[in-house]
Amino acid sequence: MSELRTSAGTAQMTDDNFRLLRDFIYEHSGIYFSDTKKAQLENRLMLRLRANNLTDYDKYYYMLKYDPQASKEMRSLFDSVTTNETSFFRSPPQIQAFQEKALPELMNNRENIGEKTLRLWSAGCSTGDEPYTMAIIVKELLQERLSEWDVKIFASDISEKALRSARSATYNEYTLRSVPPEIKKKYFVPDGSQYKINDEIRMLVELQYLNFNDSKRVRLMRGFDAIFCRNVLIYFDDTAKKRFVSQLYDNLNPGGYLFIGHSESLHNISRAFKLVHFPGALGYKKE
Amino acid sequence: MDISVFDTIKNIDDLPTLPSVAMEVIGLSRSAEVSINKVSECIYKDPPLATKVLRVANSAFYRRGATEVDTLHRAILMMGLNEIINITTSVSVLSILPPKGSEGETLRKAFWDHCIATGLIARHIDKKLGMRSMGREFVGGLLHDIGKIILDEYFHKEYMEAHAFSIDVDCPMYEAELEVLGTTHMEIGHFLAQKWDLPGYIADITLYHHQPGEAQYKDITALISISDLLAKAKEFSCGGDRLSFVLTDQPAWHMLKQMGYPVHMIDIERFTFEIEDIGKEVNNYISTFSEPGAEGFVHE
Ligand SMILES: C[S@@+](CC[C@H](N)C(=O)[O-])C[C@H]1O[C@@H](n2cnc3c(N)ncnc32)[C@H](O)[C@@H]1O
Ligand SMILES: [Fe+2]
Ligand SMILES: [Fe+2]
Description:
By secondary structure, chain A is α/β, with parallel strands linked by helices. Chain A has helices spanning 15-29, 38-51, 57-66, 70-81, 92-112, 129-142, 160-168, 181-187, 199-204, 215-219, 238-251, and strands at residues 4-5, 10-11, 117-123, 150-157, 170-171, 188-191, 194-197, 205-209, 224-229, 252-260, 274-278, 281-285. In chain A, a hairpin with a 2-residue loop joins β6 and β7. Chain B contains 17 helices and no strands.
């Protein structure tokens, strides 16, 4: 029953509302709210209702489905239903494995065929902490030789809000908590109480809006040496995971690596990759 | 070096020896007339050893029931002869080559941590695959790199060089050992296993855990070989070896598969995550063996 809770001035989400909205979100993004997550979804959508001056979830659903402005609202919806939690040098052993094992191997392979290009992708980059971390690592590894290389780090997300923040490239102390002091000194410029990524690193990263559900566009992402898709698949259900992971496989060059979140698993999702044990972290290799 | 490291070690007079009772117990385990009474009587001949075995049997790690086990006889009934013999072996080895080395303590502790982790991981895999190694997997893991401890004890400086070499060149420890010391921890470990008259499977493990295909005791050596890698993957790397590997491409993996063990049933990713908790288990295990009052294990 959809009723207005006058005291709080907020609408209540019925089970029926929940299922309709949940399915709508899933269909358009792959993000899946299981039955146990009703309260969470309600919490997140309350603000959307308020922003649109709507009194109940029926009206919100109707708006998403039939309003000519729906595509605009959808971007805001994605901002609300995504979790953008991230930090620089997140899961240090994994970052270390990338820096010490995977990246040198990939660069060697490239150099051997006389092609000094490197294409990396942070898929689900949130506020940019991950792609900038990758850029810093490439720079650390190549140092002055960076200029001899053609390096591009694509970074994409479904959340406009997160992307805006990534573009500003400005961070607070907390998200930099795992950054080694000397790295902080080298690549960050203090900006008030914040820190801004320096231009050399920023230039390596190309930010773009991309919804993983948009298979046509995802298919265009080709020729990657490594893809980070960490802590993203956890929001999908198995069907969406399978579809997306098989696309990521196609997006990689032979010999390329996929890194997913620490303690995420592709066990029931894909058998295409070779599971590699790096010291302290797992990687998935396309052979 | 003029005289080879291996020869030098062979000729060291005060090379650690296993307590005589431990050797006797291990001997008993091979004899046809092994019995509960024989084993418990034998261990009681060395009261401090008996006390320690009982304490370990009562530790969180081994304890099976609610009530404390206060006699060896009962411990054997509860845990089986094999497990008690294994505990006796582990206790004895750890007491003569304690985690504290004469020099370079940090690495020595890391070596043992790696060995204990290997034993614990082997125990988990043994269970998952239904191999029924009866605790041999734990002793095997515990002792597989015993050669490293000996090399570290008698050639500490050179061993640290080998360790640094392996990090610099990114090669396995045994290659670095060969380069710097002209021998390997496998060779030394095997020598010790024979000198101590340890069971054949342990001798096999010490020598072949990096080439399980050569072993006679193929199951258990393959098991330890895999466990060793996984222990390293989780940073119980005992220094040096920081190599990547593909588990399903390992000879040991294929061996186990060929022998009919259901390796394909293992969710390797999940298992790798579970191993993270082994860090805690390792510390528990070490503390079980080194509680105060358990020290001062005097033999002769
Ligand atoms: C928890 S963050 C992870 C950020 C970073 N990869 C990390 O591990 O620190 C998950 C990100 O995935 C994005 N995401 C979720 N579903 C998506 C989709 N269908 N298409 C693109 N990005 C999506 C979210 O917007 C969010 O920024
Ligand atoms: Fe070894
Ligand atoms: Fe080892």
